[in-house]
Amino acid sequence: MKFSTALLLACGLFAGGTAAQVADVEQLPQLYIEAYRNGDADRIASLFAPDASFIPLLALPRLQGRDAIRAYYRRSITNSRSRNITPTNQLVQAYGDVVVRSADIRIDQELLDGRQVATLARVSFVYRREPQGWLIVHHHQSVQPATPAAAASAPVPRP
């Protein structure tokens, strides 16, 4: 599986904004992170299905379609000199030709003015196996709460 990732990268199957031919769903998170780190909005968009939906971290409406997703990442990437995503607490749930992956992430950015910004968020991706390979069909991001909600572990009071 590691060999196929290297082969995909070496062959440049992400050029031109066409759908990536990803044979193994396990490749997608790293390919997404590498493309984000490199500031390659076209490569990011190529990992999404043409009709994919995306709910971004920012206060924006849901984005629909690969072109809207590409435009979002182009704008987002131009606001920073460098960027990285570090996932933790990952959960993968496989349902045949559909896989759901969720994680906590830390987004580190060096902005154009030199400031360093770190954002803690939660993300989910829904992947679907298509004839041309695995694609992201939905992506959702939300800001991680400052502290875990105490109410989530507390017993629910009875009326």
TrEMBL record:
Assigned keywords, A-Z: Signal
Keyword Methyltransferase: no
Signal peptide coordinates: 1-22
Coiled coil: none
Domain called SnoaL-like: residue spans: 25-143
InterPro entries: NTF2-like_dom_sf, SnoaL-like, Steroid_delta5-4_isomerase
Protein name as annotated: Nuclear transport factor 2 family protein
Annotated organism of origin: Azohydromonas caseinilytica
